[in-house]
Amino acid sequence: MNGNDTPRDPGSAYKYLVLTVLLIVYLFNYLDRQLVSILAEPIKRDLGLTDTQLGLVTGFVFALFYTTFGVPVAWLADRKRRTTIVAVACGLWSGFTAVCGLATNFIQLALARVGVGIGEAGGVPPSYSILSDYFPPKQRGLAMGLYSLGIPLGTFAGGLYGTWAAQHYGWRVAFFGLAIPGVLIAILLPLLVREPKRGGLDAGTTEHVAPVKLGTVIGDFVKSASLVLVALGCSLSAVVGYSLMSWSPAFLMRVQGATLADIGSLYSPLIGISVAIGIVGSGYICDKLGSSNPRAYPLVPAVAFVLAFPLYLMAVSAKDWHTSVMLLAIPQGLTFMYLAPAVAVIQNLVPPERRSTASAMLLFVLNLLAVGCGPLYVGAVSDWALAEYGNESLRIALYALIPFFVLGIGCNLAAARSLSRRK
Length: 423
Known about the structure:
Blueprint: H1 12-38, H2 40-47, H3 51-77, H4 82-100, H5 106-120, H6 124-132, H7 140-147, H8 150-169, H9 171-192, H10 214-223, H11 225-254, H12 260-290, H13 296-317, H14 321-334, H15 339-349, H16 355-389, H17 393-399, H18 402-420
Helix pairs in contact: 1-4, 1-8, 1-9, 3-5, 3-16, 4-5, 4-6, 4-9, 6-16, 7-12, 7-15, 8-9, 8-12, 11-14, 11-15, 11-16, 11-18, 12-13, 12-14, 12-15, 13-14, 13-15, 13-18, 15-16, 16-17
């Protein structure tokens, strides 16, 4: 069967096989991305980095190239075979993850992270588009939620694997060890996942659509108030989620006295489970409520952030790491309830031939603000407060995330209002 001959209804078993394969790819995508944060303290000591430099390599340097390359690669995926693009991307980021283990200074580590970012640019947007052609609109929130389990599973696996490998073999070997399975998955993916027909599950779509210029797709996205507000609400919410995920291990170890083993045995499993429940739960809830009320998609994360705020304050204020971990578990999951709803909105509002590019636009804003600026912002505030507060400066820096709770809630409410006017 060739790439465009996939039947209109591939069957539940096969579409969930596709979902599982792409989920595994995303797991390694996020594991490779998160490993620097998990091993931040030993990397900092070995390479003599500042918190600002850590914020750059865990966030801004990666995100700058991830977002820059993400849109044109996704535009290509809207025209070419998406499964091949995802496979090549997986092999590329896996190779550069191994290169991270060779770094002996900040510049070398930053350049290796550039390579990881370029590779990962071809992973998620084409996968969103593939899944949208295997799952109908009424199931896309849950499908995107299940696919996005790559984030908590990558966090959980990264914590267990990274801490174990670093303790027994050193942090460099931890990076080397991820390259082999990543390359193997890249080889197997095109053999397991058939390229689906674009728009085959969407009413009113035609098989052959004239190619659309990249500038046209970007312009139409920017002109849509609903798409822009969903992207901003998602991204401002993500600043909190990604910053907490990037800096919590360092906070628990440096300020609260936890060990690397504690991070792997308690923090990573709890946070992984919490984020998993938040992502899948939000997708399921939005599928149930969104069919009759599209405002549900941004309202769910808005409510989640309201509930998360007091628990986040208590977690950062706690005086011991056990209490902080237990309190962090719930708000960390709540702060990731923006992702599945936002992706589902994009996939449902945008024509099939533009979905990869539109997803990349969403991820462009999300990763530039959240992954790029969030960890860097926290690291810079920590360095600024270091002279006065010592190790407590990182606690002060985490308090500096408070404004983003307010901004995230406000933009999601504005997005809900905009979606209610689209009928």
